[in-house]
């Protein structure tokens, strides 16, 4: 018999901090699909892979990588706000594209949301879990230290 308690179902984790970790699972404007949108550990925010899903949980912009990219960044922005941050806090961005031909549309959308580019990787994959999804973003952010200003 195992002597450790079973882990909680991630869909039921509350946003209450446990041992320095806080699950962010209820974000205004984002569909809840039974997963945690992000986990905040100290000042770090690890965002679950984001697809171009609208508030209703449906894919935005079928066959339109720019529209899906814009929606992905809107979702990331909403999650970061819920975590107490903003897009300027993004330090690492990984984009999974299903077609290299969509790289330009993704880069254009990225440029409208991110003034300063974080460390970035783009990978072409055969397919994503959701049929019709053209890209998925994997994002890590570090929130500012409230005890230090950028000038100090």
From TrEMBL:
<protein>
    <submittedName>
        <fullName>RidA family protein</fullName>
    </submittedName>
</protein>
<comment type="similarity">
    <text>Belongs to the RutC family.</text>
</comment>
<dbReference type="InterPro" id="IPR035959">
    <property type="entry name" value="RutC-like_sf"/>
</dbReference>
<dbReference type="Pfam" id="PF01042">
    <property type="entry name" value="Ribonuc_L-PSP"/>
</dbReference>
<dbReference type="InterPro" id="IPR006175">
    <property type="entry name" value="YjgF/YER057c/UK114"/>
</dbReference>
<dbReference type="GO" id="GO:0005829">
    <property type="term" value="C:cytosol"/>
</dbReference>
<dbReference type="GO" id="GO:0019239">
    <property type="term" value="F:deaminase activity"/>
</dbReference>
């Amino acid at each position: 018999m195992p002597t450790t308690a079973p882990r909680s179902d991630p869909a039921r984790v509350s946003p209450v901090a446990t041992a320095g970790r806080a699950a962010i699972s209820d974000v205004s404007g984002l569909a809840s699909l039974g997963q945690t949108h992000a986990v905040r550990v100290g000042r770090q925010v690890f965002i679950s892979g984001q697809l171009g899903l609208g508030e209703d949980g449906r894919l935005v912009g079928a066959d339109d990588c720019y529209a899906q990219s814009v929606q992905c960044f809107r979702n990331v922005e909403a999650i970061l706000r819920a975590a107490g941050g903003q897009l300027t806090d993004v330090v690492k961005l990984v984009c999974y594209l299903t077609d290299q031909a969509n790289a330009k549309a993704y880069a254009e959308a990225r440029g409208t949301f991110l003034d300063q580019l974080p460390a970035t990787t783009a990978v072409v994959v055969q397919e994503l879990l959701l049929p019709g999804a053209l890209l998925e973003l994997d994002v890590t952010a570090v929130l500012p230290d409230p005890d230090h200003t950028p000038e100090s």
